[in-house]
Design a protein that fits this description.
Length: 260
């Protein structure tokens, strides 16, 4: 008599397990039926670099099975592998639509001539023919350089100037080359103030700046100007701030000690 409750409980457990297994098998069978096809794959996003051919190929290769069995993680992974794709979202929409939303990288610069840098400071590797500025800096400083570039460019834009390259040395000193060809040393301290002063003196149209190839803003209230660097010096300046400063010191800071 004492064994009957235990046997009954075991029988009930086995019966319940059988029901669960049967229900699972039935569910698997139902979702695999051809009556649940993927009727449409919708790709959204403002796409400039991702091509129709790439999208069509990935959809053909990775949309397998029906609405329920298509592996969304695998589909997402395929799009993430495309060079220009920054973010991917994949969702099912009943009764038969798979929705893919793509966001491309927005390239803002070339990084050390080996990669591209997007607006969020992320490195990626892709072909690009756009005329982009070149950034030279240390690994891990990408986002900082993107943010600083935006500030510098906004200040220079009213003068019709753009930045050809932007360099940040290991000592955190900034240097830029303008579209006019002038190289500007900004140093490490009070960089925003120095850029504002640079804009002011450029707007004033001082004769000394008309032919200056080099401007050193690392003075309390003035600046120094000199000849344009050679091609070799130009390349070296992109990775190491320093070197000789040319003659004339302009403005109120004449004769002052240069700061960093």
């Amino acid at each position: 008599m004492s064994d009957k409750p235990a046997a009954l409980r075991l029988a009930n457990a086995l019966y319940a397990a059988t029901l669960v297994a049967c229900a699972y098998a039935a569910a698997v069978w139902v979702v695999r039926l051809p009556v649940f096809p993927v009727r449409e794959v919708v790709v959204r996003g403002q796409l400039r670099h991702v091509t129709r051919a790439q999208v069509a190929y990935l959809v053909a290769q990775r949309v397998k099975g029906n609405f329920f069995t298509t592996n969304l993680a695998d589909l997402r992974s395929g799009f993430e592998d495309l060079p220009w794709v920054a973010d991917v979202a994949v969702q099912r929409h009943w009764p038969g639509e798979i929705d893919i939303t793509l966001q491309e990288h927005r390239a803002v610069a070339r990084w050390d001539d080996t990669a591209l840098l997007d607006a969020r400071g992320r490195l990626f590797y892709a072909a690009c023919d756009d005329p982009l500025p070149r950034f030279f800096g240390q690994e891990g400083m990408e986002a900082t350089m993107v943010a600083r570039y935006a500030v510098f460019q906004r200040a220079l834009a009213p003068l019709g100037l753009t930045i050809r390259w932007l360099a940040l040395s290991p000592r955190q000193a900034w240097r830029i080359r303008l579209s006019s060809g002038t190289v500007v040393a900004l140093g490490r301290a009070r960089v925003d103030a120095r850029v504002r002063r640079l804009v002011a003196v450029l707007r004033a149209g001082l004769p000394a700046l008309a032919t200056a190839g080099y401007v050193d803003m690392r003075y309390g209230d003035g600046f120094a100007v000199g000849a344009a660097p050679s091609a070799a010096q130009d390349a070296a300046a992109a990775v190491a701030v320093g070197g000789p400063v040319a003659s004339a010191v302009q403005g109120e800071g004449k004769g002052e000690r240069r700061t960093t």
